[in-house]
Design goal:
The protein is mainly beta. Helices cover 7% and strands 35% of the residues.
């Protein structure tokens, strides 16, 4: 389970940001493309700053296709985080916060959509990923 923050509301739904995990001991987590809150479907478009910070048991995370921004320190100090799967192609240099991936496993694997793999590698290396990380 997770905590989401509603960021916009429209006649047909709206957007939310992923704020934090309810269970900080989760080993895997999937940030979905959409969530339903009280019968309304919201697109998950952001991961808040510090959202997963210090989730020491987190090993694998999947980032949904609507996520366009990741806050500063979002995955900082997730020491066991080894597999990060991006379904989104919407991330840009300015939309990934400082140290977002600092302190994760040195040899982490980032699985990125083909068309953004090169740009994501450049972005993620500046946001905390190490040179030993793999980009697939």
């Amino acid at each position: 389970k997770a905590i989401y923050k509603i960021t916009s509301v429209t006649a047909t739904g709206g957007t939310v940001s992923f704020a934090s995990l309810v269970n900080k001991n989760a080993a895997t987590f999937n940030i979905p493309a959409t969530v339903v809150i009280k019968g309304v479907t919201y697109s998950v478009t952001a991961i808040e700053k510090n959202a997963f910070k210090n989730c020491k048991k987190l090993k694998k995370v999947t980032i949904g296709k609507n996520v366009a921004s990741i806050g500063a320190n979002a995955f900082n100090k997730c020491k066991k985080l080894k597999n990060i799967i991006f379904k989104t192609t919407k991330l840009k240099k300015k939309s990934v916060g400082k140290n977002a991936f600092k302190g994760i496993m040195t040899k982490a694997t980032f699985k990125c959509p083909k068309k953004v793999k090169k740009s994501y590698k450049t972005i993620l290396l500046k946001k905390g990923a190490t040179k030993k990380a793999k980009f697939k």
